[in-house]
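Pipeline run #58 for the internal structure catalog. This entry was flagged by the ingest filter as a single-chain record with no existing model, so it goes straight to prediction. Upstream metadata was stripped on purpose; only the residue string is passed forward. Reviewer on rotation: M.T. Logging verbosity set to normal.
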Amino acid sequence: MESVNEQFSHQLHRSVLIFLGVVIALYGISSFFPNSFLWGVNHLAFLSPVHRLIMLTAAITLGVLPISRRYLGALDRWLSSRSLTRMEVYIVLFVIGVIGTFICYRFRIITDLYGDSRTLLSLLSGKVYAIPDLFNPKDTEPLTRYIHQMAANVFHIDQKVAYEIISAIGGGLFLLFYLLFVLRLEGSVSWKILLVILGLSGGANQLFFGHVEDYTLVYVCSILFLIAGWQLFEGNATLGTMIVLFVVGVRLHVQMVLLAPALLYAVLHHRRRLSPKFERWIEPKRLFAGVALSVVCATLAYFFYFHADRYLVNDQAERFQKVFLPLVNPLPPPHYYTLFSIGHLSDVAQEFLLTVSPVAIMVLWLVIKFYRRVDWRQPRIMFFGLAVFYFQLFNLTVNPLLTMERDWDMLSLAAAPAMFLAIALSHQLFEKKLSSAEWATTTGVALAGAVLSCTIFYLNTTEQCVGSRFLGIGKWAFRSYYQGSSYLINVGEGMISDKDEQIARGDKTIRELLPDASMPDFELANLYHKMGNLLYARKQFIRASYYYGKGLDNDQSSATATKAIVRIALQLRQFDDASRIISYYNESANQPTVIDFDGLALAQRCNYFRYLQSIGTDSASIQKELDHFYETGQ
């Protein structure tokens, strides 16, 4: 009869193959729905059908066919036979870090749209950070900005380039520290190969590919903090290092404070060795009670400090001030995006699938099935579990401001504790319990998931793919979070080089979104306005006037659309209409105080063309003036 371990090993093996089937199905099906809620796993939708088929075939080959046993078995034997000195290990890891830095910079993200890099660079151009700013509690990421600004000044490079270089260096440092951590672990070579795949295949690693935002350095800092935490529970004296990393990390970005509960647990666990009275404070029942109490306190703060349960106007200033998503949103369906709306819960799940390694997700999948085989009282698991819980709680409740599809970087920091929790859980589930063949299959499935998820790195380097992806996630965002979705769509369409195709695609997009539009719809107004600009640039004035008019129907306060309609009326020689519209505009916008001098100048041009017409100026001369006005706007 089979032993208990053999039965478990076979069950685990079957569960891993089921996971592979789910992953293949998920990526395969979502590849046919580029505009859907599956934005976290629909990477293949933006590849050509041939490349899509190649990727799916490669994943199946790596995960199922006997070839995985051969190449992984050979790799296992080769690594097991290597014996390097400590100095040789450091040299090899240094070389890998340098190569990793070069790769991250060479294949950096082609667009700076992710996050809010334009606002960030504008802020840095207007403020010089100094040492005293590092101690300003109101500044949420002063050390990060100080480092980047100082690097740009010292090396006389553009601020954006400084961010890209430091981002790539962060990737090299991550490789160096993470691989050194894996090498020092006590465990089989097969398990360590799995951990390498785990670390390299996280979508959060996009932060290292020239990402222009404030999250790369704090992500690296959180990795080091978690590595020190692992070593602490192995008996090493790393608590002081953890505290220093935590303080530095909070100044790199305030989100590091979410690791405070895990740090407190580490402190209590360390003190337990010195005094038994601390033992009771880390018992599971007391720990869960403490977590529950913190959630209650956070809930009270949500209602009575942030007053975030409902929004009154839902503008960006209110969303920024209240921090968290509301329970009541003033927007009508389908834009009713609240804390417990289906669209938001779906976005949280997709963001997790995008940023967390598929290997970690596989481990969590297996833990759900074999939860009884996990020693949940193990300090290491409780430590990383606390870190994961508070990061995911933050991701669930925070208002992304720019949609979760754009704010993946702010939310991706949760991938670090999820990765280390998966390491701890996988050690309990896998180590010394799988045969070599089962290890090969498990690692092959991990590689299969990695191949599919890592296509996001390729998409980010290809303008056509990035444009198609922005267009797809913008359409979904319009039906979910809503705010800022038109910007994603306009950027995606703007990456289409052929202007006629860009116009046709824009018109098609608007028609697709109309059934879900509200009235008025400010995001739709932006799309209409962009179409008007494209058509005006191609001198299709009548069509441009239609789109500007539709934009005004949805946003009557749009000064740019009003003035654009006036310019079109001039080009169509409807001088009286142009004068009437701009006069009405100036009466409302420039009285009692002039705030738009462009409106006054435009009114003057309208009167000038009316004068030319009234004195009988020949048509050719008027057209010459109109052409000059079209080219210069004056």
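catalog note: The mean pLDDT is 90.
catalog note: The radius of gyration is 29 Å.
status: ready for reviewer M.T.
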